[in-house]
Write a structure and sequence with these properties.
This protein is mainly α. It has a domain at 26-58. 50% of the residues lie in helices and 0% in strands. It has helices at residues 21-37, 45-58. α1 packs across α2. The longest helix is centred in the middle third of the chain and has 17 residues, at 21-37.
């Protein structure tokens, strides 16, 4: 049985997304700001990302 290597933190070469790289960067930045505003809690990456994504959509920025 072979082991699969994990590539955490590396960008995928073939990546399909409904967002442009600029939009993804906006979401990353907003999610990071959200995380900092909340006091940098553990295990909130997904909820921070989704919150940032929703905010940016509502603001018409993505």
């Amino acid at each position: 049985m072979s082991e699969k290597k994990r590539s955490f933190g590396k960008k995928r070469k073939s990546h399909s997304s409904k967002y442009s790289e600029d939009d993804l960067e906006k979401i990353r930045e907003r999610a990071h700001m959200t995380w900092e505003r909340k006091g940098k809690p553990h295990n909130t990456a997904l909820s921070d990302w989704l919150e940032a994504e929703e905010e940016l959509k509502e603001e018409g920025l993505i």
